From TrEMBL:
Matching SUPFAM superfamilies: Glycerol-3-phosphate (1)-acyltransferase
Protein's name according to its UniProt entry: 1-acyl-sn-glycerol-3-phosphate acyltransferase
Keywords recorded for this protein, A-Z: Acyltransferase, Transferase
Provenance organism: Ruminococcus flavefaciens
Single biological process term from Gene Ontology: phosphatidic acid biosynthetic process
Source superkingdom: Bacteria
Length: 214
């Protein structure tokens, strides 16, 4: 067995219950994550802890697309053992990362990706989406499980919430159509999960508006 994978399993056994104790996440709709078989999990990105939050929602190994720097950092063994897929955020295209993710899906694995491709520090409800999740689904026919993260990571208080929506199926559609449904679904999940005051403070830009600006 790969040494890095052993490191990951040991650390996960510690971090998973510890995360629940420290942040007390509210998890809704986790039954939408398949217990086996290929799937792409995709949602908004607001904090560095988001991938860990997603990871603790399932017993399965989640292969997260993560910035390349993490693989080379202090906890590189953990991220490599977890099967994270390095992405070069300084490059407009990452064919190697896409190919690696598709390989995982074709082997029946679980991929987690943030279509916004970076943390959202703005007052926009969502940033424009990259096409990675949609292309993965299009090429492998794996469903996309949308999720929305709201609230804050507050120690020993119920502040963070994640909601998983119903699977989005490719159904032979082109990536742009899949991406549009994913964007609209995550936006709707965010709107339903946020308190009214937060919804009122956020600006919603439609999928078409973002596309017209690009």
């Amino acid at each position: 067995m790969d040494r890095n994978y052993v490191v990951y399993k040991l650390l996960r056994a510690v971090f998973k219950p510890l995360f629940h104790i420290l942040y007390r996440p509210v998890i809704v709709g986790r039954e939408n994550i398949p217990s086996d078989g290929a799937a792409v999990i995709a949602g908004n990105h607001k904090h560095a802890l988001d991938p860990i939050l997603v990871d603790v929602c399932t017993k399965r190994v989640v292969h997260t697309l993560a910035k390349k720097d993490l693989h080379d950092g202090r906890f590189g063994a953990f991220f490599r053992g977890a099967g994270t897929i390095p992405v070069d955020l300084h490059s407009a295209h990452n064919p190697a990362a896409l190919d690696a993710a598709i390989k995982v899906l074709r082997a029946g694995g679980l991929i987690n990706v943030s279509p916004e491709a970076k943390r959202n520090y703005t007052n926009e409800l969502l940033l424009p989406f990259k096409f990675g999740a949609a292309v993965m689904s299009h090429r492998t026919d794996a469903p996309v499980i949308p999720y929305a993260i709201t609230g804050d990571y507050r120690l020993f208080r119920r502040g963070i919430r994640i909601v998983f929506g119903a699977p989005i199926h490719a159904g032979g559609r082109e990536p742009d159509e899949i991406n549009r449904e994913l964007y609209d679904t995550i936006a709707a999940l965010l709107g339903e999960s946020m308190p009214q005051s937060e919804r009122d403070s956020r600006h919603f830009t439609s999928y078409d508006e973002w596309r017209d600006r690009s």
